[in-house]
Write a structure and sequence with these properties.
Keywords: Membrane, Transmembrane, Transmembrane helix. This protein is mainly alpha-helical. It contains seven helices and two strands; from the N terminus they run H-H-H-H-H-H-E-E-H. The chain has helices at about 15-45, 45-50, 65-70, 80-115, 120-125, 135-150, 170-175, and strands at about 155, 165.
Length: about 190
């Protein structure tokens, strides 16, 4: 039996994989944060220079043509390079997230393989003490529920003299709608 802190020769310890994965995520977050900060400062030249006027933010370098404005096109300052860098950072972040997931699954799977087999005491079936009146309580419960359902949906006599009958629930509800259930009910005058 191996100790929990030991690992097999030739295999990378799970802690090292997890540390590398967390470092990769931190690096990707730093790159993404730096890229977004750089983009924000590029879009707001007044903030970078310390100016108070923010009126120039988001204006395109070349104004759109009057024909484009007449057709309903909106001016935009998005550049293809900025979009490509943003997509590259997003793909890198997705790759790092997938790599982190795979590393964590490998680390936790390696830890699970090190769990010892259950002992004989853990594998034994617990038998309740005597008297065990029900051999299979769940099956007996299912049988009792099925018998109740059959009884609720069938006609039968409740006594040998045939004075009381069992009526199916649906039929009994239909017969009792609008009638009093009291035996000595007398109509009340309005």
């Amino acid at each position: 039996m191996s100790r929990p802190d030991s690992h097999e020769p030739g295999r990378t310890p799970p802690g090292l994989l997890l540390g590398a994965a967390i470092g990769s995520v931190a690096g990707a977050a730093a790159v993404l944060g730096g890229g977004l900060l750089w983009r924000w400062r590029q879009a707001t030249p007044g903030i970078a220079a310390g100016a108070e006027d923010l009126g120039a933010r988001g204006l395109p370098e070349t104004p759109p043509s009057p024909a484009a404005l007449e057709r309903g096109f909106e001016p935009s300052d998005m550049r293809a390079g900025t979009l490509a860098r943003s997509m590259a950072v997003l793909f890198l972040a997705a790759f790092v997230a997938i790599a982190l997931t795979v590393a964590m699954l490998a680390a936790f799977g390696h830890a699970r393989r090190g769990i010892p087999a259950p002992t004989r005491l853990q594998d034994t079936t617990i038998v309740p003490p005597q008297p065990r009146l029900q051999a299979d309580p769940l099956q007996e419960y299912k049988d009792a529920m099925q018998a109740m359902d059959r009884a609720a949906g069938s006609w039968s006599w409740l006594d040998a003299a045939h004075t009381h009958a069992r009526v199916p629930l649906q039929r009994g509800a239909a017969l009792s709608v609008g009638h009093s259930l009291d035996d000595d009910a007398t109509p009340v005058a309005p």
